[in-house]
């Protein structure tokens, strides 16, 4: 999808990119509310962007605002966000899918037997939403 634009996706999704402000060299990026930050040292900045956008679109960053509900376990949040990144890397023909698979396997091993059906549906919906958000207005209009 050569017309896909990161800047357009951020704008359409109403997500602001902030300067990276952590000193932990192991952190590639983070998301808070409707904000993301990607380390200038990130190995695959596009994959990290997809992962952090995944957290926002999946609603993970909004969970902290609702204290009376159940929080999604961290292992499942990480699996969901990285699966979004995996789908986007594959769909857009960008490198990183192998890293995504390893990351997902690592988090599944830390507390999940498998990816629940409800999570799989959320993952595909979020990936589709991010893909559509990055397309030119004409293409988005044609789909509706």
Textual characterization of the structure:
This protein has 144 residues and is mainly alpha-helical. It has one domain. β2 and β3 form a beta hairpin. The protein is globular and about 45 Å long. The model has no long low-confidence stretch (mean pLDDT 92).
Would you spell out the secondary-structure blueprint of this structure?
Layout: H1 6-12, E1 16-17, E2 29-32, E3 35-38, H2 45-57, H3 60-63, H4 74-92, H5 97-109, H6 117-133, H7 137-143
Parallel strand pairs: 1-3
Antiparallel strand pairs: 2-3
Can I get a quick summary?
The protein is mainly alpha-helical and 144 residues long. It has helices at residues 6-12, 45-57, 60-63, 74-92, 97-109, 117-133, 137-143, and strands at 16-17, 29-32, 35-38. The chain has one domain.
Q: Ranges with pLDDT <50 over ≥5 residues?
A: none
Structural class: mainly alpha
Could you say how many structural domains there are in total?
1
How far do the termini sit from each other?
A: 18 Å
Helical run tally: 7
The value of Rg in angstroms is: 15 Å
* Proportion of helical residues: 55-70%
Mean pLDDT: 92
Shape, per Cα inertia axes: globular
Question: Quick one: biggest sheet?
Answer: 3 strands, mixed
Strand order of the largest sheet: 1-3-2
Strand content: 5-15%
What is the string of helix and strand elements?
HEEEHHHHHH
User: How many beta-strand segments?
Assistant: 3
């Amino acid at each position: 999808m050569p017309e896909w634009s990161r800047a357009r996706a951020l704008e359409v999704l109403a997500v602001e990119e902030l300067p990276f402000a952590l000193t932990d060299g192991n952190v590639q990026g983070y998301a808070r509310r409707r904000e993301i930050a990607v380390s200038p040292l990130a190995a695959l900045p596009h994959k990290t962007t997809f992962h952090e956008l995944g957290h926002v679109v999946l609603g993970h960053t909004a969970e902290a605002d609702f204290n009376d509900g159940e929080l999604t376990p961290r292992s499942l949040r990480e699996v969901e966000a990285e699966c979004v990144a995996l789908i986007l890397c594959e769909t857009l023909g960008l490198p990183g899918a192998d890293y995504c698979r390893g990351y997902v396997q690592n988090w599944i091993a830390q507390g999940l037997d498998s990816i629940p059906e409800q999570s799989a549906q959320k993952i595909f919906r979020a990936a589709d939403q991010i893909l559509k958000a990055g397309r030119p207005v004409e293409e988005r209009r044609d789909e509706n």
